[in-house]
């Protein structure tokens, strides 16, 4: 069912970097009511710029690290719900690509996403009297077509796709729908700066960039189109 973003309240985890930032800018072209950005990046100049894109939208930045305990995430979400009264969409976009940092890659890319999702169910789950909601999880095409030189990263993205597919099938019970948006190779700093697992491939970035790529702006535009299409259980592949 198509979704109008007009007057919606959106919480965007990691909405200030790379694909996240360009998606944020695209979202602001719609007449949201509130956009709450949760991110480790603290960039007042970017926040000030975002606020000028569409004065109809209230943009709020709150510092947040997805690796905090789930109890801290629940406290943060409570302050957001208390202020906004309702949240319509949660976008989980935190991610790193560095197979040298195995535990942190899993913590940011998967555990943090699961915890943030679990935390918001306290407020949305219809079994608790909640109104339901929409979860958009940012995966990657590596979730179903692994880059074998970075198996840790690829594994976390496969986990995101499967976790989200399960959420979608639970929608009749929880009232919460879910889908993944899976970018292909983007021309971002993420691609240029990562390490392969056990240094099995010293030139992964160069090999990846030899394939067709897209700009994060193009990806952000398609990202928002996917949100508006709002198909529970969809696995969107964004690589054009």
From TrEMBL:
Enzyme Commission identifier(s): 1.1.1.1
Transmembrane region(s): none
Keyword NAD among UniProt keywords: yes
Gene Ontology MF annotations: alcohol dehydrogenase (NAD+) activity; aldehyde dehydrogenase (NAD+) activity; protein homodimerization activity
Pfam annotation, one family: adh_short
Alphabetical GO biological process terms: acetaldehyde metabolic process; acetyl-CoA biosynthetic process from ethanol; alcohol catabolic process; behavioral response to ethanol
Alphabetical keyword list: NAD, Oxidoreductase
Gene Ontology CC terms, in alphabetical order: cytosol
InterPro entries reported for this sequence: ADH_Drosophila-type (IPR002425), NAD(P)-bd_dom_sf (IPR036291), Sc_DH/Rdtase_CS (IPR020904), SDR_fam (IPR002347)
Superkingdom of source: Eukaryota
The protein's enzyme class: oxidoreductase
Reactions listed under catalytic activity: a secondary alcohol + NAD(+) = a ketone + NADH + H(+); a primary alcohol + NAD(+) = an aldehyde + NADH + H(+)
Record-stated family: Belongs to the short-chain dehydrogenases/reductases (SDR) family.
Quaternary data: Homodimer.
Name of this protein: Alcohol dehydrogenase
Organism, as annotated: Drosophila ananassae (Fruit fly)
